[in-house]
Amino acid sequence: MSIKGQAIWGFGAVAALAAVPLFLTQPYYLHTVIMILFYAFLASSWNIVGGFAGQLSLGHSAYAAIGGYTSTLLFIHTGLTPWVGMLVGGLIAAIIAVLVGMPTFRLRGAYYALATVAFAEGFRVILESTKHVGKWDTGGAEGLMVPLKGNMPSLMQFMGKAPYYYVILGMLVLVVLVSWYIDRSKLGYYLTALREDEEAAQALGSNTAIAKLQAAAISAFFTALGGTFYAQLVRFLEPPAIAGADLSSQMVLLAIVGGRGTVLGPVLGGVLLTTLGELTRAKLGGSLLGIHLILYGIGVMVAILYKPQGLIDPLMAGVRKLARVVNRSRAAAETGR
Amino acid sequence: MVILEAKNLVKRFGGLIATNDVSLSVEQGSITGVIGPNGAGKTTLFALISGFHTLSSGEIWFEGKRIDGLKPYDLCKRGVARTFQVVKPFASKSVLYNVTVGAFARTNRTAEAERSALEVLKLTGLYEKRDALAKSLTIVDRKRLEVAKALATGPKLLLLDEVLAGLTPREVGEAVELVRTIREQGVTILMIEHVMQAVMALCENVHVIHHGVKIAEGTPMEVTRNETVIKAYLGEKYAAAAGSQ
Questions:
Q1: Domain range spanning residue B229?
Q2: Average pLDDT for consecutive 10-residue bins of chain B (245 residues)?
Q3: What's the predicted TM-score (pTM) here?
Q4: CB contact under 8 A, B104 and A206
Q5: Mutation for testing the B interface, residue in A202, A204, A313 having most B CBs under 10 Å
Q6: A3-311 in CATH: which number?
């Protein structure tokens, strides 16, 4: 598809998504849709290092926690608005991703994945067991409340759900645009190359260590922005939820099911699986506790068994086919006239 | 003028000496061959020159500057490119994508990298197959792709590691033409090759390696008549027979 074609499709999709709160006015449904976009955002952020660079990070919740805690602590103790605090959190997360990446990127395959698990679990335990950093109360295992200041857009606090929806939609559009840009840039080519064969990439002039660190930094930056958004939406941070292995593996699964290393795959995975999860919980959660997780697991297994490259490829092939049919019938109608 | 000079290269892997005091020099604009029986240490020699292995001792000079100890990507920027004996395509990507990765060594802009990649594809005869996935290529085309990727990095010195192995005689003929064309573009070539027909046709100068040691050097005609070389390839008896002729 040409860049112009992609722009038209993209603009149309964003416009359609922007109209959703006009129809979905019930807070429960709107909250569900916010969470869908939130997970699509996190999966897309993970995908920059986990997909494009092919480095299976299983510890990305640590970066979400860094984002959430940084902006919240700055807000509580210095009054800094989370709009700025989220950028600070993002930068700190990026720096830590580089520091973690320098030793761990020397490891390959499962060993790298294990190192990221160790890092994230260690970080969670530190969060749970630390009550104070200097004079600042971090809440420890009890968690940290984000003080409510009323309807204050300048502090990223809103009374209704709709504004949160637009914030996360904007963030999702941003991370998709960045992914799209990376995919077409020198960095994207180098990441793909090192994912497929690191020695060959080096022989062609790519400093693969630097490329991986760049991807890790960008990925951690966006993941941390997601952490701040979560903190403002839920107004409560507790280590198992924001820094736990559940959130880490969630990002990985959504991206893999949707299509790892593609621009839109993680968005598709996020939308499909989060919807499936919410539906099964809403319909079945009351009678058979936990059944939604089993169904969710089956969904993941089926997708990985039958479409290991992700669901985005067959979907895009279908869209292209449809576009061809439409074009042909339009051409036929014009010649028939 | 000498473009590459290797002095007393030694590479030890534990107790094994894979490269033992090998020296060689390559003239700018030449096609130089490296031959030797299987396991002689030819590929190790290439890995040393291209920065994939570190030297145990010795020095490597390129264009009058010392380059041993530099990483493969630094060497690539300076103009030393290599192919791999076991080809390394980026399998799930198109031919054009593969070659564009190489072209990024000389530019940061995607459009420009693609443009120069297309030029290289025309030169190497892969232009028609630019949209095919690398994994769908035949072995001949994979070898060509390997050369095209390295060539896209804009090298001054190209190290070719057995790019003719496994090709039919006709394909060898085409590949020999390709190597000549590349040299005509001003690229110096150092090639490891088993196919003697091609070595005879292409190389001005040949180095013979055996058990990690350089045993002979000269024109293709000279080395194929060299008694030590014949012994290394065929054993004592044949050398005696050749000597008595």
A1: 1-79+158-166+187-245
A2: 94 91 94 90 93 94 94 96 94 96 96 96 95 94 95 96 90 93 95 89 93 92 88 75 56
A3: 0.91
A4: yes
A5: A204
A6: 1.10.3470
